[in-house]
Amino acid sequence: MNRFIETIKNIFSIEELRTRILNTLLFITVFRLGTHIVLPGADPSRLNVQTNGLLGLLDAFVGGAFSKASIFALGIMPYISASIAIQLLTLALPYFQKMQKEGESGRKKLNQITRVLTIAVTAVQAITYIRTTIPAEALLIDRTLFTISSVFVLTAGTIFCMWLGERITDKGIGNGISMIIMIGIVSRLPGAIIGEAQSRGTSSIFIFFLEMVALFFVIMGAVLLTQAVRRIPIQYAKQVVGNKVVGGQRQYLPLKLNAAGVMPIIFAQALMFIPGFVFQMGAEKSETMATLNSLFQDYTSWPYNLLFAFLIIVFTFFYTAISVNPTQISDDMKRSGGFIPGVKPGLATSEYIGTVLDHITLPGAVMLAVVAILPSFASQLGMTSAFASFFGGTSLLIMVGVVLDTLQQIESYLLMRRYEGLMQSGRVKGRTEGVTV
């Protein structure tokens, strides 16, 4: 406890770090206040927004703003969708690949294209959101006028959230976009814990204690999945530069066990939502449609979880294959004079890295699938759905990743000032270490 208090004192004794932490708290407070401001022209007491399936995931990412019809109802998610689209285009189209290789100027162009695409995506999603989720009885003004004004308000809200994220990155601590998503998720945790405790009652306090212990170990498992790497030794040849001999050092290429992050879960959830929506439209026409609808909507059933886990494993291999390029890594090593001991440079090195990547991706994909379906098992054990959602899935992985990144940045400030780190056992490793994806 004394060491923890001393670490807190060290953190706030560094003026720059203290300023960044206070700025981050200020920006987060502004975001949280915005999630409670309802769209102009809507009566919040008459809103009954259903958040099932993918909509429930979106509502969790924006801290409940989606179900409240807030001005931040779409949050930062249109920007995430636009960023993913640009990333995929960069891998597929030579024009975007060339732009990415142009350095800082190319990145600025890609960021500008992403912002413009974000506005377009937000406008389309805003119209869909207003038409499908806001009931007519909740409107205080004309429907057409409400739609037009709300499209502008929701678009402005998303742009403002994007601006807040950029300010957190520049003036605060951590990745601002990820921080905003994480805050939206964490904001639901206290209510979920209180709701679970109330559902258990005083007679089942021991069961609630066991649930909290199980949650702790699940979080530790997610930390291991996020930080686990396979280090490949790289030897750099000695070179004569002037009168000095440089190089000859041994470094390591860290390949992450889960290089795809949370993207396979997001893709799998989106794909599972589509047939569920289609079958729901025809559920009343036949018993077959009703059965298929229950299959794709009941996330606690074993067929749903089996298919969900299979899709996650497939998407993990797919996203890792398009994100980590062994040929490019091999070429970069060759140009910098590096080689893997016992492996010839060039094609042999590329094949070796690809083989290692395949070997570690399989267990990583299986572990990711297990983490994704854990909430369904928690629900089957009698936990409330809100509390069970924190036992795995996208929410847990995002929280763990963002917290690790933030702690890593704080520790870097402490080490620069020759203070002790946050952890006595070693340095905090964030997601930024390893292969860039």
TrEMBL record:
Biological process annotations from GO: intracellular protein transmembrane transport; protein targeting; protein transport by the Sec complex
PROSITE patterns: SECY_1
Keyword Heme: no
Gene Ontology CC entries for this record: plasma membrane
Residues annotated as transmembrane: 21-39, 71-96, 116-134, 146-165, 172-193, 205-225, 259-282, 302-324, 360-378, 384-407
Keyword Protein transport on entry: yes
InterPro entries: SecY, SecY/SEC61-alpha, SecY_CS, SecY_dom_sf
Pfam families hit by this protein: SecY (PF00344)
Primary location recorded for the protein, binned into one broad class: membrane
Keywords: Cell membrane, Membrane, Protein transport, Translocation, Transmembrane, Transmembrane helix, Transport
Membrane topology, as annotated: Multi-pass membrane protein
Record localization: Cell membrane; Membrane
Top-rank lineage group of the source organism: Bacteria
Function of the protein: The central subunit of the protein translocation channel SecYEG. Consists of two halves formed by TMs 1-5 and 6-10. These two domains form a lateral gate at the front which open onto the bilayer between TMs 2 and 7, and are clamped together by SecE at the back. The channel is closed by both a pore ring composed of hydrophobic SecY resides and a short helix (helix 2A) on the extracellular side of the membrane which forms a plug. The plug probably moves laterally to allow the channel to open. The ring and the pore may move independently.
Family label: Belongs to the SecY/SEC61-alpha family.
Assembly behavior: Component of the Sec protein translocase complex. Heterotrimer consisting of SecY, SecE and SecG subunits. The heterotrimers can form oligomers, although 1 heterotrimer is thought to be able to translocate proteins. Interacts with the ribosome. Interacts with SecDF, and other proteins may be involved. Interacts with SecA.
Protein name per its UniProtKB record: Protein translocase subunit SecY
